[in-house]
Amino acid sequence: MKNTLLTSLCLFILIGAAPPARGENATTPALAPSPGDVIPAFDAQRIDGTIEHVAFPKGSKTVLLFFLSGCPTCHKMIPEWNRAYDRRPSALKVIGVIMDQEPLGFFDTIPIKFPVVRPPGREFLKGLKVNRAPTTLRVSAGGAVDDVGLGLLDPIRLGELFKP
Question: Which H or E run includes 69?
Fold first, then answer.
């Protein structure tokens, strides 16, 4: 019995498979966007109240920055995003997406240099598989996700996501 269990465990390790984690099964949705996923064009409200149509036309590159106002990791990431925004190529569009309702004075306390919008709704975020923050996505024409950065990113990795 011990040999059979050990052999099974070794097979899982060798073939790179692992049994589903507790509560997971084959129908558990992906926890984050992946390269090749497609983000549809959408209308979003900017923090100043105006509506912005976010689209991904031919020849364009866009970086979407998903964050929460109450997320300490996001607070660490925002200054890095600001620096990357300052150094970005002129043709690169950058849009922040705040996924919660910020407390009064948030934007005065934490300066953000890039434009920020509110997503069209929670279902929209679920459809994009944006389930954690911060999330950094590089998106090309047609809304195809080129690259994904999750969590706190170092400046080198961030530079890769902000490349032309």
Answer: none
Task: State phi, psi for 146 to the nearest 5 degrees.
Answer: -90, -40
Question: pLDDT, tens digit, for every residue of 8-35?
Answer: 333 222 323 333 333 333 444 557 899 9
pTM metric for this prediction: 0.80
- Alpha-carbon distance of 69 to 133, in angstroms, equals 10
Q: Terminus-to-terminus CA distance in the chain, angstroms?
A: 57
Closest listed residue to residue 92, CA positions, set 43, 8, 28, 160: 160
Q: How far apart are CA 132 and CA 87, in angstroms?
A: 26
Spatial CB neighbours of 138, under 8 Å, sequence gap ≥ 6: 61, 62, 63, 145, 146, 147, 148, 161, 162, 163
Cβ neighbors of 124 (< 8 A, separation 6 or more) are 42
Query: Which value, in Å, is the radius of gyration of the alpha carbons in the chain?
Result: 19
How far is it, in rounded angstroms, from Cα 115 to Cα 122?
20
Q: Which domains, and CATH codes, for the chain?
A: 31-161 (3.40.30.10)
